[in-house]
Design goal:
This protein has 430 residues and is mainly beta. It has one helix and 21 strands.
């Protein structure tokens, strides 16, 4: 099966490599700013309070509350490219997290690493770099990376973002077409300083960690996205493989249609996954369909979403990330075996009322038909309220405040009441 997977990956890799070769034979000088002239760097300070209260607890972990407070710093620096047929540059990321408040009975929030004694670490951090090469509209990066892919979503949901070590190739040589390919060999999780192998996280009502002990040092992917119709319509197809654990295909469709003063949109996708290679985690079978429909008018955007999980297993992804399913929320994923879920959502931008920088999001998702394996049908729901404000001018310009309140209830897993308060400020260094 490993050989079959390699055969599927190779054509796309050859195609993307062909784009690079075509670029090398094209422009004699790369069209980008110089190594120094194109350099830029930002430093984000992020103050994060996270609290979850648990009730009707299910599972072995009987901790009734998670509550931690921490300060994070995120440095992103990137050079431009050297002049020539192939431009060369470097990206650097530096991350530092500092504990402000925690205790063993309230730890494991995902903000900080947890020591063997149950205490959260006082501080943690990491520094990484990636070398990059660019020819025409094709770019290769090798080193410390923060990918944001349909099959590996960038999961910046806590104090510090996760990173991956490997290579990413992206080509935009043909109008409207983006070709992508890459391989990651290890990861540093959002609450860790150390490189480690990657594991699969499956939505399993009985044992959500059942695959976590199985690890792989190869995550391979290829993908193609094509935008047309004045970039109002796009389609995509992706293939991913966590070697010897699972392989997954993803098909996407997005469209936005102006209708008078409204803009109507759709974001739909389909995942199909099964076991891979040596099947070290056993057999696996899942497919997932989602559709998120939107209508935008003035400061309002209304959404309706539907999601359905099929196959013998729940949705699978690389841990501990999120996924692009339409009904995935910060607390519940609504991606258990057999689950069907519906979403209503309203976003509002207060700029139309003369308050630029203030936005709100209200979401409600309800799921049913979960195959719990416990002799009854699983049901769950979640309501999220987000308020965010970014100061637009004056001495505090750029300071951001985000408040999130969550209520999540289920008849087969732990009920959750959650609050988050995030203060952030980004400084442009150069």
């Amino acid at each position: 099966m490993h050989a079959r997977m390699s055969q599927r990956l190779n054509p796309a890799v050859r195609l993307t490599g062909g784009c690079l070769a075509a670029a090398l034979c094209g422009e004699s000088v790369a069209e980008q700013a110089g190594f120094i002239e194109g350099a830029q760097a930002t430093l984000q300070a992020r103050n994060y309070y996270f609290s979850r209260d648990y009730s009707d607890i299910q599972g072995a972990n009987r901790q009734s509350k998670t509550e931690e407070w921490a300060q994070g710093f995120i440095l992103n620096a990137s050079s431009g490219y050297t002049q020539g047929t192939v431009g060369v540059g470097v990206d650097v990321i530096g991350l530092l997290g500092i504990k402000l408040d925690s205790s063993p009975d309230r730890a494991r929030s995902g903000l900080l690493p947890t020591n063997a004694d149950g205490e959260s670490a006082d501080e943690y951090g990491r520094l990484g770099a990636a070398i990059k090469f660019k020819a025409s509209k094709t770019e290769l990066k090798i080193g410390e990376l923060m990918p944001n892919l349909p099959v590996l979503v960038f999961s910046d949901l806590r104090l510090l973002p996760p990173t991956y070590q490997g290579a990413m190739l992206e080509s935009r040589e043909f109008p409207g077409l983006t070709l992508s390919a890459g391989q990651f060999r290890s990861t540093r999780l959002r609450d860790s300083s150390n490189d480690q192998k990657m594991y699969a996280l499956v939505n399993d009502p009985i044992n959500p960690q059942r695959l976590a002990r199985f690890t792989s040092d190869r995550f391979n992917y290829v993908g193609a996205d094509y935008a047309f119709n004045d970039n109002r319509t796009s389609v995509g197809v992706w293939q991913a493989q966590l070697e010897d654990i699972y392989q997954q295909r993803f098909y996407s469709f997005k469209h936005a249609e102006p209708v008078g003063d409204w803009v109507l949109g759709v974001n739909a996708g389909y995942f199909d996954a099964r076991e891979d290679g040596r099947q070290i985690a056993g057999e696996y079978d899942n497919h997932a369909l989602f559709g998120l429909f939107s209508a935008k008018h003035g400061g309002h955007t209304f959404y309706l979403g539907y999601q359905q999980i099929g196959g013998d297993d729940g949705f699978i992804q690389v841990g501990a990330n999120t996924n692009p399913l339409g009904n995935t929320l910060p607390t519940y994923e609504f991606a258990a075996p057999g689950e069907r879920s519906w979403q209503v959502r309203h976003d509002y931008n207060f700029v139309v009322l003369g308050i630029p920088g203030l936005t709100s999001t209200l979401r409600y998702v309800k799921g049913k038909d979960v195959e719990t394996g416990l002799g009854f049908e699983g049901r769950d729901w979640e309501r999220d309220l987000d308020l965010a404000y970014v100061v637009q001018s004056g001495p505090l310009e750029g300071v951001g405040v985000r408040i999130r309140n969550v209520v999540a209830r289920s008849n087969y897993r732990t009920d959750i009441d959650e609050n988050r308060l995030i203060l952030s400020y980004t400084i442009k260094l150069f």
